[in-house]
Amino acid sequence: MTDMFVSLGTWNWLIFGFVLMALEVLAPGVFLFWLGLAALLVGLISFGIAVSWQIQLVMFAVFAAAAVPVWRRLARPNLDASASPFLNKRTEALLGREFTLEKPIIDGNGTVRIGDTVWRVAGPDTPAGTRVKVVQVDGANLTVAAA
């Protein structure tokens, strides 16, 4: 087994790197690409500096381990929470807005049309066509008051 590691040379690392990158085409996920890049780096460094097989393995491990966090940082977009504060919080974006009642609030329940969606609202009895303001949200339930 150690004979195999002793025989590791520059060309072996370069071939290994290209094989890993080619496998990335068959199994996309951008993971094998970074391992292939680590193998290519070891091969290129081995061209310039004669290093032992132990150092080559350590370099490969270090490059491969460093490639994963680098890729995760580069691949993920920088989502600023202030850019879209209501992402996945649609009802919270309605808080404080005014709408016209589509159906009257009778016995505490009515509806408003917001865009292309009809929302159920709760509040004091109010006739249809009245402007109401959303004062509280709880999941998909809106509580309104006269505007």
Q: Which key phrases capture this entry?
A:
5-stranded mixed beta barrel, 5 helices, rod-shaped
Q: What does this protein structure show overall?
A:
The protein contains five helices and five strands; from the N terminus they run αααααβββββ. With 147 residues, it is an alpha+beta fold. A five-stranded mixed beta barrel has the order 1-2-3-5-4. α3 (32-48) crosses α4 (53-75). The longest helix has 23 residues, at 53-75. The chain is rod-shaped and about 85 Å long. The N and C termini lie far apart (81 Å). The model has no long low-confidence stretch (mean pLDDT 85).
- Quick one: how many beta strands? 5
Question: Which stretches are poorly predicted, pLDDT < 50 over at least 5 residues?
Answer: none
Rg estimate, integer Å: 31 Å
Q: State the end-to-end CA separation.
A: 81 Å
What share of the residues lie within helices? 40-55%
Average pLDDT score:
85
Shape: rod-shaped
